[in-house]
Amino acid sequence: MSLDNLKSFDPFAETDGGDDKKDYIHIRIQQRNGRKTLTTIQGLPKEIDPKRVLKFAKKEFATNGSIVVDPDLGDVIQLQGDQRQKISDLMVASMGIKKSNIKIHGF
Amino acid sequence: MSDEEQKKSVAFGETTDLENGEKVETNEGSTAEGHSVAGTNISADEMSSRIENGEAEAEAPATFDPSAMKKKKKPKKEKESENGEEAPKENGDGEGFDPKSLKKKKTKKVKTEDGEAAEGDGEIDFSKLKPKKTTKKKKAPAGDDDEFQKRLEELGLEDKKDEPAVPQTQEEIEAELAQGTGVWAQDNATPFKYSQLLKRFYINLYEDHPELSGDGRLKNYKIPPPQVAREGNKKSIFANLPEIAKKMKRNPEHIIQFIFAELGTNGSVDGAGRLVIKGRFQQKQLESVLRRYIVEYLTCGTCKSPNTTLMKENRLFFVNCNICGSRKSVSAIKTGFQAALGKRKKQQA
């Protein structure tokens, strides 16, 4: 016998998202000298090849960029300029990443 | 209506709306770009990836495609980095990847996504959340100015026979109430309207027990806008941080930490308690950071009220709501990846 009330609801689960195991993709921005900025994308899922993303982004956004291998965080994509919105749109639109998994930081 | 609500209720007023507008615009703009570029430039790539896809589905693990230059490279790299798990990984790669170059998906998803974006933006605002909470409140005069205004006008039409001077704005009503003039005067014999009494009730309630009156006025949770000045060429000063921290009942240190992590810089606090941030930042930008702080570390997850306290237990941060008593864990502030800036020589030294 099973009670419907006592089924699979976890009262201690996170209230908004539901998934605790969210691996966020962080998109950050850093100021360089003057009006120049740098966009970093951290935490891409493993099944996505950062190299290809970078290549695509470089062409599409007409900007330069590179991949930095961080000992803790893995591959981090760096792009010149403020590409936060564009890269997040790109990821949502064509890489099958949910918007809720992307965190855009910075101002 | 909803636009106006937003304007009113968000702490910093106009700028948010601007931001929203900008966001949406940029969204559209960039997606439009995406179409055109994807259409023209990547057709070759697309072709190859489509071919790849077809063949990959047929025979998953080892395929030799002369056309697939990139694909070959990719698995190599993965092997280098991860060792093993080839077949599933490759498959995943193919699936995760080639949609990028497919046009169809883009167009479809983008459209829906735009809608979501607009909604998402709205959700951040306190206003949109609030009206959901209590349906009663809509009847309350304290709720929406517009609705109230309308009702007032209706009332006004009725009242005109009795007394010509019906207060139009909320402020006037409040003033009358406070001073005991107009309808509320001792010698005034006109019967009270239900709505007037209701209004009076909410005003009194708010004065005596602001926490009970719910969103009536708290909806406009206001924080003084950050005062930002420039110090020299490369530093910005955030002058009224202590004031804001006090208003939010948060440790300034915590806010500072958050600001630095978000902006990817560092800085210091000067003698007067002002925050000196490295880099050029405008008021608008700090506002958006603060707003994010509020959403993440201030508002209660259940009732959205900003009346909360931040507690630290066993290295974990919890936000306790003082109104509904709910408690949610919030992630600690992480700076994340910091790109190396500045001159190489300096860093080596």
* CA gyration radius of chain A, whole angstroms: 18 Å
Q: Strand fraction band of chain A?
A: 25-35%
Largest sheet of chain A: 5 strands, mixed
Using only CA atoms, what is the Rg of chain B? 28 Å
| Rough outline of chain B | elongated
- Assembly status: heterodimer
How many β-strand stretches of chain A? 5
Which structural class should the secondary elements of chain A be placed in?
A: alpha+beta
Distance between the termini of chain A: 54 Å
Q: Structural class from helices and strands of chain B?
A: alpha+beta
Work out the helix count of chain A.
2
GO molecular function (chain A): translation initiation factor activity
Family (chain A): Belongs to the SUI1 family.
Protein name (chain A): Eukaryotic translation initiation factor eIF-1
InterPro entries (chain A): SUI1, SUI1_dom_sf, SUI1_euk
Characteristics:
heterodimer; A: 107 residues; alpha+beta; five-stranded mixed β-sheet; 21% helix; B: 349 residues; 7 strands; 55% helix; 9% strand; elongated; disordered N terminus; protein biosynthesis (chain A); SUI1_dom_sf (chain A); translation initiation factor activity (chain A)
Characterization of the model:
The complex is a heterodimer of chains A (107) and B (349). Chain A has 107 residues and is α+β, with helices and mostly antiparallel strands. Chain A contains 2 helices and 5 strands; from the N terminus they run ββαββαβ. Chain A has a 5-stranded mixed sheet with strand order 3-4-2-1-5, covered by helices on one side. With 349 residues, chain B is an alpha+beta fold. In chain B, strands 1-2-4-3 form a 4-stranded antiparallel sheet, with no helix packed on it. The N terminus of chain B is likely disordered. Chains A and B meet through strand 1, strand 2, helix 1 and helix 2 of A and helix 2, helix 4, helix 5, helix 6 and helix 13 of B. Chain A: It comes from Orbilia blumenaviensis. Chain A: This is Eukaryotic translation initiation factor eIF-1. Chain A: InterPro entries: SUI1, SUI1_dom_sf, SUI1_euk. Chain A: GO terms for molecular function: translation initiation factor activity.
